[in-house]
Amino acid sequence: MMLLYLMQHGASLPSEAAPEEPLSPMGLEQVEKSAAATARMAITFDAIIASPKLRSRETAELMARATGFPVSEIRTATEVKAMTPAHQTLELLDALADAQSVLVAGHMPNLARLASLLLTGDDRPRVAVHNAGLMCIEIPGPRSRRGTLAFSLTPQQLVLIAGNRRVFDSGSLG
């Protein structure tokens, strides 16, 4: 069985302001809080995969540091880029058959398509994926194309789990 964790990168700077599109200050804060919550839940990873985009790599590095995963072992893969078909991302995951806990720090719409394919059998996006939110899907075995949703937490819920009452984007939980 594999626990597949999906996280869309935190909010990024607009491409006009920063061509590399790193995480914005708010995005850094989002991911730091989500990473703290992940550590508080005692979640660890056997593998972390990020896209080549800077904001995805920054997200993966923050998650790695918080959970004790070696930053030097983060794998960068084009198979988790925004427009990559979900079946190509699954092929990448098939190569990690020995891993029991994998984090993909990626982009929309790939993450929503991947989750939808695993949960419904159809890759049309049918699930909500939030910047710096964390979704966990249980996949029963290697090469399985179906999974079960274990949880899907918004950034606001992760802030509360981390123990910080301040909600960074809207100021409320509504």
Please describe what this structure looks like.
With 174 residues, this protein is an alpha/beta fold. The protein has one domain (2-10, 21-162): 3-Layer(aba) Sandwich (Rossmann fold), CATH 3.40.50. The chain has five helices and six strands. It has helices at residues 25-40, 54-67, 86-94, 110-120, 155-162, and strands at 2-8, 47-50, 75-76, 101-106, 134-139, 148-153. The protein has a six-stranded mixed β-sheet. Helix 1 (25-40) runs parallel beside helix 2 (54-67), helix 1 crosses helix 5 and helix 3 (86-94) packs across helix 4 (110-120). It holds the Pfam family His_Phos_1. InterPro entries: His_Pase_superF_clade-1, His_PPase_superfam. GO terms for molecular function: hydrolase activity. It is an enzyme of class 3 (hydrolase).
List the helices and strands and how they pair.
Blueprint: E1 2-8, H1 25-40, E2 47-50, H2 54-67, E3 75-76, H3 86-94, E4 101-106, H4 110-120, E5 134-139, E6 148-153, H5 155-162
Parallel strand pairs: 1-4, 2-3, 2-4
Antiparallel strand pairs: 1-5, 5-6
Helix pairs in contact: 1-2, 1-5, 3-4
Please estimate the helix content.
Answer: 25-40%
Count of helix runs? 5
What would you give as the CATH superfamily?
Phosphoglycerate mutase-like
> Largest beta sheet, briefly?
6 strands, mixed
Mean pLDDT: 91
The overall strand count is 6
Radius of gyration: 15 Å
List segments where confidence is low: pLDDT < 50 over at least 5 consecutive residues.
Answer: 165-174
Assembly type: single chain
Q: Which word captures the global form?
A: globular
CATH architecture call: 3-Layer(aba) Sandwich
